[in-house]
Amino acid sequence: xxxxxxxxxxxxxxxxKAIEHVxxxxxxxxxxxPSLVRAAERVVFPGQGAMPDCMRELRARGLYEAVIDAARDxxxxxxxxxxxxxxxxxxEGDTAGLGVxxxxxxxxxxxxxDAQGHKLKVPHMGWNEVExxxxxxxxxxxxxxxxxxxxxxxxxxxxxxxxTAGVARYPAQFTCAAARENLFAVQFHPEKSAAAGLRLLxxxxxxxx
Amino acid sequence: xxxxxxxxxxxxxxxxxxxxxxxxxxxxxxxxPVEIAGRYDEQGADELTFLDITASSDERDLILHIIEAVAAxxxxxxxxxxxxxxxxxxxxxxxxxxxxxxxxxxxxxxxxLVADAAGRYGAQCIVVAIDAKRVECNSDAMxxxxxxxxRWEVFTHGGxxxxxxxxxxxxxxxxxxxxxxxxxxxxxxxxxxxxFDLELTRAxxxxxxxxxxxxxGVGNLEHLADGVLHGRADAVLAASIFHYGEYxxxxxxxxxxxxxxxxxx
Lengths: 209, 265
Hints:
heterodimer, A: 209 residues, Rossmann fold, eight-stranded mixed sheet, four-stranded mixed sheet, 6 helices, 14 strands, 25% helix, B: 265 residues, alpha/beta, eight-stranded parallel beta barrel, 10 helices, 11 strands
């Protein structure tokens, strides 16, 4: 069973639909039940909205410990705010995260510009190239520098750069995928990234770390 | 290489069916939203926008079926707009599977709606649609202090109702209240096929921090490229040039790439 963790923040249908699409035989459950998260073989931790609200809702549903445990001992995929919450702390509302990955989450600056001097907008929204920094089963079949769909105003800064599995540029390079043992987490949205995103999700459903 | 400029086909939906002559070669049923969305996805569309033009309130919920069907089959972001009046409307569309909801007239009637919806679901899924029309400034008295000679006014109710609100000021206010992106339509150009109002697009893009989608007036591929190169739009939206099979999204991207615009190929 694959548990998609639901803590009441927005739409998780697209995540569960995409997983069902690539793994039609999988038993995918969108759940806020900590015991189901503990029983699952794999866990997907999505997220959208503001991180302070996400952390509050996670605690309110008693999911805090279950998520930390799952991130330590079974195939675990964090997506967007789901990645950000794994870190120690975020600048968004100066919020403490789960502390599964050492490091911080920072906001893009307000005065970003590209090489031509044109203003870059925040949120960073749209399709950007992802450079794979390590060989990893979740990158299998995905060409180098494939574009994935992003929408975010904050980005992670892992304390240990060896955990960076992928980077993107806006305009400075930032970590957009982090990996460690059974854990893989991405800032982009694989469920909205067409064929490449579906491939990453399919790789996750077959992954044996 | 960095973030790509987005190309977004827009589809009108009436009572749960896609309307306004979508014409792909070999399409079994031109009204089927899943088939049409799938076709645009295949062509490389970066996002899709559905505009619900259903007039009768008892047929309003039919859009939810479209959203569910598309969300189960097409894995690119899609926005739904039209008739969104409350946070509850936003919730229902997102729960059905929409990634973003666009708010237009209701934002003018109740700006707090934008703040409430963004506060609840995040700025990333709240698009504010602005229908803007040029105002002739024949005298200095009509000009906005500190602004250039050009002005645009916000219109609502599908462009039928003038509001007296300055469009650029309105855009800034929407950004402040939590809009994640602006869908900017020129009422002067909509349906004319003579190109975007580039001055309008540029004015918005230069003064806002959030992304701006240019809309209204596209008649050829040059217009799409102009929207990015001269209007500085982050994304370009078009309907008819794609629906009638004049151009595919792929052709549009190839053209823009030739012009030096970064696109997702």
